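Write out the 3D structure for:
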Amino acid sequence: MGCLIEELYSSNAVDLIRDLYYDDPSAKYSFYNAFGHKIIQSQNKILISKPLDILLFICSTAKFATSEHECQMVSVMIYKRLKEKNPLPYMLDDRGIDLAEKIFISLSFFYPALNRRWERGGPHPSFYRGISKQIFSQEQNEDFVRNFEKWEVFFQEFFV
């Protein structure tokens, strides 16, 4: 996190942030939210260090997020799945949580690809969404399931 914060703030601000961050551990999520807003406001900067932290901070700005845990789960899922050679879901090859995560990533970042599949005779994106939500629900991720579409829109508006 240190290198990333140094890219966003002046050295004096970094020292102050570090002191406050370690003085009050309960304020951690508030810091994440503030860092996320700073990243969003700094869109003219290219940030390359700590991509998982960047995702977590951006997720922390989602007002609808139920908990820090939900933001962490979503950021780790995106980080992991976007590094794959092919993040699109394949109903015959992918199973369980792998399928659910790939569907979420595809709906959030690659919706036109899913729509093209549908136009060529594949399942409609809403079918994929229903399958993914069902799997996440079976995995006891109810907060995420309730916010599933909100997360989709959040990432479509921010990244696409």
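The chain has two domains: 1-61, 63-160.
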